[in-house]
Amino acid sequence: MTYEIFKEFRFEAAHRLVKNYTGKCTNNHGHSWHVRIHLQANSLDEKDMLIDFQEVKVLKQWIDDNLDHATLLWENDPMCAYIRQSEQRIYVTLKNPTSEHIAEIIMQQAIRLFQNNRINVACVEVNETCTTGAKIYQ
Ligand SMILES: [Zn+2]
Questions:
Q1: Which of 25, 34, 100, 104 is catalytic?
Q2: How many domains is the chain built from?
Q3: What is the CATH number of the domain that holds 101?
Q4: Which of 51, 77, 103, 115 has the least CB density, counted as fewest CB within 10 Å?
């Protein structure tokens, strides 16, 4: 038997895509990002929970501290210098800050926070619009 729970979060952030990309997403623009994390386990804890939903909020805290109201930019985007200079919030990424890569970044944090010998971070879904998003599986 495998149990699975999910938790959803929202955050607001701007991004643009400039690495090997030409198109309208090269323009800085914002999204109300929607995140859904799925955790799996084959057994429950002493409270008969996979994990207390309250404990999953530490991921929301990481998102709020790092991504919320930030500009998400690829490390070689020339806009990084301006954002830093103007002391605005920035989150620098190793790849284009696509939904796929943002899902990857959140997956890495979720693994750091929740993965143990009982709990597996199954997948992270990141939607940048109501109709567009990406999902990453471990
Ligand atoms: Zn976008």
A1: 25
A2: 1
A3: 3.30.479.10
A4: 115
